[in-house]
Every structure is written in C-alpha cells, then in structure tokens.
Please model this.
Amino acid sequence: MPKIVDHENQKERIAEVVWNIIHKEGLEQCTVRKIAKEAGISAGSMRHYFPNQAKLFIYSMQLVVNRVKTRIDQLTFTETPEENAKQLLLQLLPIDAERKLEMEAWFSFTAKSISDPELKQLRKEMNEGIFSACQMAVEALCPSQNEMERKRETEHLYALLDGLALHAILKPDRVTHEMIDSVLTNHLQTLSDQK
Model:
C-alpha cells in the first residue's frame, strides 16, 4: 500500500529546512539539491512540491508571515493595555529558537526581495502588518494624542521593533529575550505615561 503523505505538512517541513540552511550557511547555499538532501527526499520529489527555487522561497517567506499571524490570532488580550501591547509586539520579535530561525530567514528573503517582485509583495504585506501592530499599540496606549503625535510614535515603535529584531539576530549574546522584554516594556510604559 502506498505511503500517504500530508502535502502541506511536507511543504512546511521543506520550508523549515530552508530556514535551517539559511541559519547555518546563508541563503546562497539554499540549492534545490542541498534542500532535498537535508529534507531526506529526492530532488525530483521536491520539484513535485515546488517546481522551482523561486516558488520554494516564496512559500518559505509566506510561512513566516502565516506563523506570525497564527501566533497573533491565538492571543487573548485580558491584561493591562501595556501588557496586551507587549504580548502583541513580542510575536514579531526573535525571542525563542523558532522565531530566531524565522527572523533570520525573513531578513535573508527581505534582502533578496529587492530584486524579486514576488518576494517584494510578501515583504510589503509583512511590513504593513508590523506597522499596523505598532499603530494599534500606540492608539491603545496614547488615545489622547493628536494624529501627528500618534504617527510619530508609531514610526518610533516600528523602528524600535526593527532594531531589536536585527540586533537580536546579529548580537544574540547582548540582545537577549530578557533585554528585548525590558526595552519593550520600558518603551510601552513611556508611551502609556503620555496619555
């Protein structure tokens, strides 16, 4: 009897292999042959899931977006506005091993998206989602600020998240989960104090 394969699960597993190769060796080492070998399948089988490398990269980048959305959808906002905002924004930061892999892949795909229109669209979608999360946090914490002040604070928070994410990837010994939590908590408290 033939083995039944969950195709979506297999595609996710292959995408996770891509993330691991990026982590260990960089995006330029993500060849179809290497990915297939690491995934334990033949290159021909891999082409069954992804007809070319571009489709695989698009799927791998989309998987990052989907996982972030899933984490956010599973949140229950029952705490203080500051804590709720922090829990929302932490979903976008590399605070554990899985999110670090996602973030490393995301930054690699973001660099590649400069010359790849299909990846560029996914980058735009994710960036708009991050900006929207920052906007929601600022509006919840600073409802009495005027529109210009809220726009400025949203850009400030967005830049803070990008900086924390990048530094956590580049300097993980310095920008730890505890440091991210502390910096974010402090900034959100400062925003809340501006009510």
Observations:
- Residues 77 and 84 are 5 Å apart (CA to CA).
- The chain has a mean pLDDT of 91.
